Amino acid sequence: MASMIESAWTYLITNFSDFQLACLGSFFLHESVFFLSGLPFILLERAGWLSKYKIQTKNNSPAAQEKCITRLLLYHFCVNLPLMIASYPVFRLMGMRSTLPLPSWKVISTQVFFYFILEDFVFYWGHRILHTKWLYKHVHSVHHEYATPFGLTSEYAHPAEILFLGFATIVGPAITGPHLITLWLWMVLRVLETVEAHCGYHFPWSLSNFLPLYGGADFHDYHHRLLYTKSGNYSSTFVYMDWLFGTDKGYRRLKELKNDACELEGKEM
């Protein structure tokens, strides 16, 4: 497996420049993973398949879904791509490389774990600030146009928010200067996580059922359903920040009430 990855990587660095891989390659990878993981949830919602796992009964109209996709393409090409190009010199300055040898899995996993922890911390405070009255009204309300989220709404946001919260995603790699393959793995995992958190479905196989402190769709869907001043659940991937600062109390109370209702129903049967 390792030799196959190394052979594929050798082909990439032989046929493409460092700039092409870091900027255009990263953009292509992001778009591929984002749309391939997000589009199926639009199909599920339109077809009504697996509806028993849908968190909210309300569906988005095809027009609303199409508006989201159109805006996303605009934002990705006009904001995300220029940002990747502009940040390239910073990553190079901090030591990012694409050359062989590839880093060990121990190095990759350690760095990615650090990125998740740091991203959760930075994202929590940035997201919480965006829920103050003025910033919510003028910036963050764009993301909350979809009270019933679906996978692709994860990146539907005001351009200012894309830049503001995007900092949380890139700050870890920016300060560590990782190998490009580590950056790509981090990007893929982060995209898959945020799409899943906005997918609108809670499946028996959802990661939040097995991984402690992982938020997932049920946790984040609660955030979209409530008024901005009372929503809470500001965390990104893991929920330790909401737990530490008590901003998930409403969500936890709702879960307790649902569990109590299920237990009562079971006893009556």
Automatic annotation (TrEMBL):
One Gene Ontology biological process: sterol biosynthetic process
Domain Fatty acid hydroxylase per the UniProt entry, residue ranges: 113-247
Source organism superkingdom: Eukaryota
Entry protein name: Methylsterol monooxygenase 2-2
Primary localization class, coarse: membrane
Compartments, record wording: Membrane
GO cellular component terms attached to this protein's record: endoplasmic reticulum membrane
One example GO MF annotation: iron ion binding
Repeat recorded as keyword: no
